[in-house]
Every structure is written in C-alpha cells, then in structure tokens.
Amino acid sequence: MTQQIPDRTVYDQAVPPAEMDDVLRSLFEAALDVQSRAHAPYSNYHVGCSVMTPTGEMYIGANIENSAYPQGLCAEATALAVMASDGKREAKYVLTVCDSEGLATSCGGCRQKIREFAIEGTIIYACSRDGLLGMYTMNGLLPDSFGPEHLSP
After folding, report:
1. Average pLDDT, the chain
2. Spatial separation of the C-alpha atoms in residues 92 and 118, rounded to whole Å
3. For residue 4, what pLDDT band results from cuts at 50, 70 and 90?
4. Which of 89, 88, 77, 91 is nearest to 122 (CA)?
5. What percent of the chain has pLDDT over 70?
6. Alpha-carbon span 82 to 115, nearest angstrom
7. Stretch 115-123: mean pLDDT, rounded?
8. Of 21, 7, 4, nearest in space to 132 by CA
9. Helix (H, G, I), strand (E, B) or coil at 112
10. Alpha-carbon distance 32 to 53, whole Å?
11. What's 13's DSSP letter?
12. DSSP three-state, residue 94
C-alpha cells in the first residue's frame, strides 16, 4: 500500500529516531553511520544517504569531495550508483543526513538523479544528525520534472 503524504512536510524541530517507525529509523541509522565516513576535507560538510528499494534492500553512500571540485560526488549520487550497480532500478525511500542544524535538501542534480529511480509513492526524507526535519514526495521535491517516460523507447 502506498503511504499518502502531502507533497512537502517540514517539521519545526527534528523528529528524533525514538519517534520514527522501524523502517525510517533503519534508514536514518544507516545514513548517519555512513555520514561518518564521508570524504569532505574541503567543505567539512558531511552527508550520508540511504536508499531502500520496494523489496527492502538498502544501499548507502556518503559524499566524496575531490580537490578538482566539480569531480566530487554527493551522497545521494553515491548511494544510487551502488543501488544501480547491484542491478536495482527502483527507489522507494531516499534519506539524507546532513551536518546542517536546519533543513537541508538534495541539490538540484541529486533531485534529478533521484527522479531517475523514483517510483509511484517514493518518499524523500531530509534529516539532521538529530532526526527528521522534512519529507517530500518526488513531485514535492522536483515538481513537473523530466523523467525516463519522456524519452522515446
């Protein structure tokens, strides 16, 4: 069953892990753990991401900076690449944990990368290290987006 949520929900304060359901808590804990392994020597801004498929497989990734700045990878791109490399093509949940105290969402490029693997009902969660700060549908994060269905077969 698809969970019905508004396109965008932002919380005044972080929802702590103790108040999350089991799936959300497992996504949060995995992203928080991989965040600690981010390679961010230039910005010192660490991001962890977890992605779950409709069948429950979880993939994680952290941001990886490069001294040639445009060559770095965002955490979302890393996690989605690991998922795709494992042959999976559908993301049901995407969760990021950022160093920011306030709400920080995926950059524009990552929103499009998530869109590539989003399915009906995909939910994107934005978290700080303290917990959940926002959740979005794909349309809430990237309205009127271009996707694979727009291309000819």
Report:
1. 94
2. 7
3. low
4. 91
5. 97
6. 16
7. 96
8. 21
9. helix
10. 19
11. E
12. strand
Give the three-class secondary structure for 134: strand
What is the C-alpha separation between 150 and 153, in angstroms, rounded?
A: 9
Distance of alpha carbon 50 from alpha carbon 93, whole angstroms: 8
CA–CA separation, 66 vs 77, rounded Å?
A: 14
Q: Which residues are catalytic?
A: 76
Compute the radius of gyration of the chain from its Cα atoms.
15
Over residues 118-145, the mean pLDDT reads 96
Q: Is 62 in contact with 38 (CB distance < 8 Å)?
A: yes
Cross-sheet strand order for the sheet of 131-137? 8-15, 131-137, 118-128, 91-98, 47-52, 58-62
Give the model confidence (pLDDT) of 22-74 as tens digits: 999 999 999 999 999 999 999 999 999 999 999 999 999 999 999 998 899 99
pLDDT at position 69:
87
**Cβ proximity of 65 and 118 under 8 Å:** no
DSSP 3-state of 79: helix
DSSP helix, strand, coil percent of the chain (3-state; round to 5): 30, 30, 35
Q: Confirm whether pTM is higher than 0.90.
A: yes
Q: What type of residue is 99?
A: D
